[in-house]
Amino acid sequence: MSPMPELLMGILLVIANLVLFLALAPFFDGIVRRVMARVQSRQGPPLAQSYYDLLKLLGKENIDSTGILPFRLAPLVAFASMLCVIAILPVAGRATALTPYADAISLVYLLTLGGVAVLLGAFASKNIYALIGASREMTTMIMVEPILFMILMMGVLKTGSLDLTAVIYGTPSAGFGWPGVVMIVVSLFALQAFVARQPFDIAEAEQELLGGPFIEYSGPNYALFKYYMMLKQMFYAYLPIAMFVPLIHSGYFIADLAVQMLLTALVFLLIGLLSATHPRYRIDQAIRYFAVLFVIALCAIGAAVIF
Amino acid sequence: MRKELEAKLIARLRDDVVCVEKTDERTIFVDVKRAGFREATQIICGVGARYLCSVGYDNIDRDGTLAMVHTFALDDRNQFVCCRTAAPVDDPVIESITPDLPSAGWSEREVTDLLGLRFAGHPKPKKLVLADDWPEGIYPLRKDVPHDLVPQGAEDVAYQLDEAPPGTKIVPVGPFHPSLHEPEHFAVYVDGETIKGCDYRGFMTHRGIEKLCQTQVSYNEVPFIAERICGICGSVHATAFSQAVESAAGLVIPRRAEFIRTLMLEIERIHSNLLWLGVAGHLIGFDTVFMQAWRVREQIMWLCERLTGNRKTYGMILVGGVRRDITPEIAQDILTVVKKIEEELMVIYRAVEKDTSIHKRTKGVGTITRQQAIDWNLIGPVARARGVDIDARRDHPYAAYDEVKFEVPVLDSCDVWATLVVRVVETFEAIKIIRQCLDKMPGGEIFVEMKDKIPAQRHAITVVEAPRGESVHYVITGEENRPERWRVRAPTFTNLQAVPLMLLDEQFADFPIVMGSIDPCFSCTDRVAVVDLQTGNASSVSKAELDAMSRKHQERVKK
């Protein structure tokens, strides 16, 4: 193929990625809500409820309770950083036009930037609940981001490359060996923390902090944060599927993608079940939990280096 | 006991003792002069009495004094001791007993607010009940103040919170906060996430029920108002009031009515404990427990609707008996429903019992020692979870509790988990009691009319074990077929005072569940909105329409 159509294809893939994530993330959120409802003997909201919620919030008034710039910028930064992550993500093994300009480290950077934007908004809102929520969010980030990094590191070690497509899709499932199996377990146990759901919805903690970092946000700004959270959850639910479940290589990109999205939906089913069967942990309990995961992940990386 | 107490009092106080009398089998009244009041309460505590509450009343018309009663219970002998004194209205100061009995703090502050009686040596003589902008010098419970007085409000008057310990930040919890179910304000002083103290400002929806019942209605109407003190333990208050009046009047009610009261109280306990279990689940962020417990609870509300016409606020208790009889069909209905609840609750309990993540959030949380629980006079499941073996149903039997057998669960792990277990076990015990009631209930009348006029100036005290602990009602009979003074002490009044102690050095994340573990009493009225599921149109219902709908539904239920 000549370079021009490839570039065009790459650009199309960037757009396709964004459309896919933006379109599916609220649906997956709907799945979690429905699963939780069914475990709780409730009928639950319609699967499209999260789209309605976003639309409703977008139509409401933005209340700027502080009048300072960081407060207004934070939701935009968070949302934009997540869009960047999606734009560079090689979905179903296909690199987009932007993937070559990024690597595993910039992926982690961009994800962290989203988290930092949440903190920024929380600190700017000068609300004591937001501050407590932000300090919890910060602690969680410090503990959880290294685990994410080590999951990606596994791919880096196996392929010897930082290129995203290689890191995520480059290792055949047999190639991971037992450290890879340990890492799968770690990523399952860290799943609820990545998606910030029970037992790790500590920063938002409705019953104590009334939404924590987001307490002062309303209307479109809050919609952006909500959308950001949904996109982030979809990314984290998709990541273990992409890394540890081999593509079916049917020859059709669409079929590969459909299977992976189906598997992602199953991960959301799992998220819903886990959320419905756990109380919220306290931050001190969560830290101990993360610390154990961290050590295990580190051992797995060590083992992958040695063997 | 009366003689023993009299001898001890006279030995120490000599001329300060006016009289020690026993008005009925279980009530001893001690009258002392003002100077010996505090010492008299110390002597009473010394014989093993447990402080209940204090009652102030206006005696200005009679002898120009404001009177004060401290009430105590002797749990091992089924007796109550009421220690009375009076202070002239122009020098209304009495020595405080709060330094000896910390849980008397609120009772005394309440009397100061409502009657203008002051307590020398009170460690925290701040406003408690009245609004911050209530004018000085107007004491609502005095007889010269009309019940509908609306004084001029004032701007810029705010409650002064206690000073925060150095290095702490104040987190306001309330007046509106999802973990509280009624308006009340906690200022929680936190260092990082650790709670270093808290101040409480509540009584924001003080409705003046006592004043209303002392001035506007008659004995027979009060039970229905009493029932509305609490949205959950209504029958408890109605029963307690009725028993106090019956005791003052010397009225003996039919045995069948006593059994039906017992039955209603236990149905209410099942309802309340299931409700609490759900709320507790919600407060630790475990909504599945919340939803499942309330699903089980729903059946008891349907049952009560068939039984009394209301899902809650049953209106069953009258002075002199109960309003409706239990027919054999409804008895069968009750048995079927409680059996189903027993099975379904067992499923939830088994799941909760083994859930390590619930243990993580409840074990070792809200810990206070048994001695602290005794010092603060904690009551109900909160006390029983701290190894304090008290239960008014067993210690001061009323209604038909002397004829039924039940266990009183007492645990000694002293934390929130223990209160959960105590409440679940008590629900199973309540089901046992209901079965025994239906089994042993004698035939006969369910109501006896009060024929003679109740003499004025009789004092009576009763306790009824609510799901949250004992409710104390103190009644002084009055002239116009209504109580002259009626004091209600709900269990939360006592338990809430010890919450700052339970919170100390806990994590802020545990605030909701520690607070929730005492099951703070709330009552609420809600607007009704009807949503048409097909069209999605929402419409509100006016009061008249709602009445009509309720009546129509009632007709259907009767058929």
Describe, in plain words, how this protein is organized in 3D.
Chain A: Keywords: Membrane, Transmembrane, Transmembrane helix. Chain A: It comes from Chitiniphilus eburneus. Chain A: It is a multi-pass membrane protein. Chain A: One of its GO terms (cellular component) is plasma membrane. Chain A: This is NADH-quinone oxidoreductase subunit H. The complex is a heterodimer of chains A (307) and B (559). Chain A has 11 helices and no strands. Chain A is an all-alpha fold. Chain A has one domain. In chain A, helix 1 runs parallel beside helix 10 and helix 3 packs antiparallel against helix 4. Chain A is globular and about 50 Å long. The relative contact order of chain A is 0.15. Chain B has 19 helices and 17 strands. Chain B has 3 domains: 141 residues, Beta Polymerase, domain 2 (2-Layer Sandwich), CATH 3.30.460.80; 309 residues, Cytochrome-c3 Hydrogenase, chain B (Orthogonal Bundle), CATH 1.10.645; 30 residues. In chain B, 40% of the residues lie in helices and 19% in strands. In chain B, helix 8 packs antiparallel against helix 9. Chain B is globular. Chain B starts with a helix and ends with a helix. The longest helix of chain B is centred in the middle third of the chain and has 29 residues. The relative contact order of chain B is 0.12. By secondary structure, chain B is α+β, with helices and mostly antiparallel strands. The chains are: A mainly alpha (307), B alpha+beta (559). At the A-B interface, helix 5, helix 8 and helix 11 of A face strand 8, helix 8, helix 9 and helix 11 of B.
Key features?
heterodimer; A: 307 residues; mainly alpha; B: 559 residues; alpha+beta; Beta Polymerase, domain 2; Cytochrome-c3 Hydrogenase, chain B; 3-stranded antiparallel β-sheet; 17 strands; 40% helix
